[in-house]
């Protein structure tokens, strides 16, 4: 499965059911390594023409949030596991994954990385356990407009518990 169906997002097309606002101005842009916009120059599998999402440098210092649809509560047999590839450049960037529960106004930060992993694709899996409906928010922040400062995400897969 190439990840185009259901709850998997490889961003090869603009359609990704989990992210209803993908085509809006969330601050994330869909591009590939040949776009002339600096690193990363390929997707996590080394494909230069395959698409991913990255933060545009104009989004400097204001968090750009990519929100999922509302997920139903998890149960003991089916926790929600989200696996994704991410790229952070080496300097002043922060990439976070947050959880917003139905009854809460605030987003709880459940995972975060900042620019110490030098310019490479990494993979991470987070597990969510929630007794109420929730949304997951991927948010990135670039604090400087130096060339090549960026955050990118690709190949986001959601388990059946999501």
Description:
By secondary structure, the protein is mainly β. The protein has one domain (8-158): Jelly Rolls (Sandwich). 0% of the residues lie in helices and 41% in strands. The strands form 2 sheets. Strands 1, 2, 3, 5, 8 and 10 form a 6-stranded antiparallel sheet that branches. It has a 4-stranded antiparallel sheet with strand order 4-9-6-7, with no helix packed on it. A hairpin with a 6-residue loop joins strand 6 and strand 7.
Topology readout:
Blueprint: E1 8-9, E2 28-32, E3 51-55, E4 64-67, E5 80-88, E6 93-101, E7 108-114, E8 121-128, E9 134-142, E10 151-158
Antiparallel strand pairs: 1-10, 2-3, 3-10, 4-9, 5-8, 5-10, 6-7, 6-9
Supply database-style keywords:
162 residues; mainly beta; Jelly Rolls; 4-stranded antiparallel β-sheet; 41% strand; disordered N terminus; MALR1 protein; ConA-like_dom_sf; MAM_domain-containing
The geometry reads as globular
- Extract low-pLDDT stretches: 1-5
Q: What class do helices, strands and sheet pairing give?
A: mainly beta
What's the structural domain tally?
1
Order of helices and strands: EEEEEEEEEE
Number of discrete helical segments: 0
Roughly how much helix do the residues carry, as a percent range? under 10%
What is the name of the CATH class? Mainly Beta
CATH topology label: Jelly Rolls
- The fraction of residues in strands falls at 35-45%
Mean pLDDT: 85
What is the terminal-to-terminal distance?
18 Å
Main sheet makeup: 6 strands, antiparallel
Extended strand count: 10
Going by CATH, the architecture would be: Sandwich
Alpha carbon gyration radius: 15 Å
Pfam families: MAM
InterPro entries: ConA-like_dom_sf, MAM_dom, MAM_domain-containing
Domain MAM: 7-162
Protein name: MALR1 protein
